[in-house]
Specification:
With 225 residues, the protein is of the alpha/beta class. It has eight helices and twelve strands. It folds into two domains: 119 residues, Rossmann fold (3-Layer(aba) Sandwich); 93 residues, Winged helix-like DNA-binding domain superfamily/Winged helix DNA-binding domain (Arc Repressor Mutant, subunit A), CATH 1.10.10. 40% of the residues lie in helices and 21% in strands. 28% of the residues are buried.
Length: 225
């Protein structure tokens, strides 16, 4: 089940219709109050959440979702007005899994929903390593191999790669990466992230092209297709 939180009835109905037609059972909700009432009865697989809502806006709703134990890890795609970079970055900082810029096409919406559900689906345990194609990161030995050959990564490059491989397709802001990899007390500039991403891409060779720049936001590592 996908919950679509959108106050414009015409858009909401179109979203629900398209998702249902694409094989994703969906339910439309007009505001935050209706969402939290619905969540008391059923937990969806994903929430499509508009930022501009009457009463409680989407950012406040996302904060509340992430504070509740039963919805803390619930996938959320934020819908933001075109050009509102601040809202988009803030949503990602608060734990949104992806975003859609309004006006968006219905097929783009379905594609984003499918991608987020695919990468957030529970995965079977395969030891303490993660792989992508010929690349393997082993957390036990703290090593990275590419086509069977060991890569010499710095501690920060290793930590960045671990973050990307653990969440393929997810967008990370530079501030998120600074906090996760360098620590919340780090006083340096976000340019530091760009430099380390550049060296990591180089060491990964052709696979480094999968670490893509999301203009105005940060970086994501594209998963296997």
């Amino acid at each position: 089940m996908v919950f679509c939180v959108e106050d414009d009835a015409a858009i909401r109905n179109m979203m629900v219709y398209t998702l249902n037609s694409s094989g994703f059972p969906a339910r439309g909700l007009e505001d935050g109050s209706a969402l939290f009432s619905a969540l008391e009865k059923e937990l969806p697989q994903l929430i499509l959440l508009d930022i501009m809502l009457p009463g409680m806006d989407g950012i406040e709703i996302l904060k509340r979702l992430r504070l509740k134990a039963d919805t803390a890890n619930l996938p959320v795609i934020m819908a933001t007005a075109k050009g509102t970079e601040y809202d988009r970055v803030l949503g990602l900082d608060l734990g949104a899994d992806d975003y859609l810029s309004k006006p968006f096409g219905m097929m783009e919406m379905v594609s984003r929903v499918r991608a987020v559900l695919r990468r957030t689906a529970p995965k079977s345990k395969q030891g303490n390593s993660v792989t992508m194609g010929d690349l393997t990161l082993d957390r036990t030995s703290h090593t990275v191999t590419l086509q069977g050959k060991a890569l010499q990564l710095t501690l920060k490059e290793y930590a960045l790669l671990d973050r990307f491989l653990s969440h393929p397709g997810r967008v990370f802001t530079r501030d998120q990466l600074l906090s996760d990899v360098w620590g919340v007390d780090y006083a340096g500039e976000t340019r530091t992230v760009d430099v380390h991403i550049g060296t990591l891409r180089t060491k990964l060779g052709s696979l480094g092209q999968r670490i893509t720049t999301v203009r105005g936001v940060g970086y994501r590592m594209e998963g296997e297709k």
